[in-house]
Amino acid sequence: MAEKSARRRQLEASLAEDPGDTFLRYGLALQCLRDGDTEEGRDRLRALIADHPEDQVAAYQQLGQSHAEAGEPEEAAVVLRAGIARARARGDLHAAAEMEGLLETLG
């Protein structure tokens, strides 16, 4: 496991006080990824998507990007396609276009 940054410890403490805060949950997932704790970050993004699939378009994008950066194009494509569908359903064409661009880079 990667060493926890001060920011990560702060986010964990805040989340302990308000475990349902989706903004904190997303922030902690990203911080885990930044700290090099890839599996923890991905697990947190997956949990956020599972709990709030309609509202967490950014989580799909970050999870897909994490897989792409790790050289896992098939996994990235699955996540990104799901995220694109959610983004379009929400009318978030900008997010959909960003994910489509990333999907195109996968080959």
From TrEMBL:
It comes from the Bacteria. Gene3D superfamilies: Tetratricopeptide repeat domain. InterPro entries: TPR-like_helical_dom_sf. This is Tetratricopeptide repeat protein.
